């Protein structure tokens, strides 16, 4: 917004406590016009994960495939909040070159900003914009809990990036399934990510949920007709004679299981303290 209204990029100082992996907005459009990029990005994601030989290599491959973007090619991201951005927006943001990487802000005083790893000067004439709001700060230390437990429903995400769809499906499962065990099997928790490697258990949990849903015909039909779910309808409507789209679907089918296996491997490595 500041750039759009004509503020000189050199007059902006950006305190970037952590660099982040970002999602390309072009890959998140669930319409036929964007099939190759949106559904194709799922295929690229599975190929990138399944073919990776390490966690670091997985992120490299995801970036090379266009699934992930970042603002600065010289800085390795350590954060992932599933923020979406367009490539045009990246070009604009890269005009800002006054980047401060000293950790999180601890205090803003009249003449200085105190950060976790240092201090920078400021003044009462500067406009300070706080854009650091995060669910992680509110819920990051909360212990995960089952969505269904006794007489309590704890709404949480069961599909990555989609809280509205998740809430609708939790309600459907509550109304249509009997046992708590079955409800929780269909509504496995997909935790919101914070660190870069949180992408791994998040994606694995989402894929496992998708597999369980695919085994239940009535649930599959409900998801396909849910207006909050665009991709299932998009994929189900593919013309079997459309070779280009069928090639994308074939890539997904061929690489889904290898990707799940690799995510399971990487999850074990993370549990053992192996990140790279």
Q: Can you walk me through this structure?
A:
With 276 residues, this protein is an alpha/beta fold. The chain folds into 2 domains: 9-104, no CATH class; 140-271, no CATH class. Helices cover 43% and strands 12% of the residues. It has helices at 35-50, 55-64, 87-93, 135-139, 163-176, 180-186, 199-214, 217-224, 231-236, 243-271; strands at 14-15, 20-24, 68-69, 79-85, 99-100, 105-108, 112-115, 118-121, 148-149, 152-153. The strands form 4 sheets. Strands 3-2-4 form a 3-stranded mixed β-sheet. Strand 6 (105-108) and strand 7 form a beta hairpin. Helix 1 (35-50) runs antiparallel to helix 2 and helix 1 (35-50) runs parallel beside helix 10 (243-271). It is globular. The two termini are 37 Å apart. The model has no long low-confidence stretch (mean pLDDT 93).
List key phrases describing it.
single chain; 276 residues; alpha/beta; 10 strands; 12% strand
């Amino acid at each position: 917004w500041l750039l759009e209204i004509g503020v000189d990029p050199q007059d902006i100082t950006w305190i970037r406590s952590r660099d982040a992996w970002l999602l390309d907005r072009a890959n998140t459009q669930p319409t036929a016009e964007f099939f190759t990029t949106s559904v194709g990005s799922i295929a690229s994601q599975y190929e990138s994960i399944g073919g990776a030989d390490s966690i670091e290599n997985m992120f490299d491959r995801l970036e090379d495939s266009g699934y992930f973007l970042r603002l600065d090619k010289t800085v390795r991201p350590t954060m992932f909040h599933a923020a979406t951005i367009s490539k045009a927006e990246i070009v604009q943001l890269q005009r800002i070159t006054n980047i401060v990487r000293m950790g999180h802000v601890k205090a803003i005083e009249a003449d200085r900003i105190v950060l976790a790893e240092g201090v920078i000067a400021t003044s009462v004439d500067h406009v300070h914009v706080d854009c650091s709001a995060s669910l992680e700060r509110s819920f990051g230390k909360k212990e995960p809990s089952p969505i269904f437990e006794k007489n309590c429903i704890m709404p949480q995400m069961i599909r990555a990036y989609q809280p509205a769809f998740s809430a609708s499906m939790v309600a459907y499962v509550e109304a249509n399934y009997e046992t708590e065990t079955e409800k929780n099997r269909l509504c496995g928790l997909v935790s919101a990510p914070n660190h870069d490697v949180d992408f791994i258990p998040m994606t694995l949990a989402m894929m496992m949920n998708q597999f369980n849903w695919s085994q239940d015909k009535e649930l599959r039909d409900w998801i396909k007709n849910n207006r909050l779910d665009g991709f299932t309808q998009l994929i189900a409507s593919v013309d079997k004679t459309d070779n280009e789209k069928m090639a994308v679907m074939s890539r997904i089918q061929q690489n889904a299981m290898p990707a799940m296996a690799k995510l399971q491997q990487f999850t074990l490595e993370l549990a053992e303290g192996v990140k790279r």
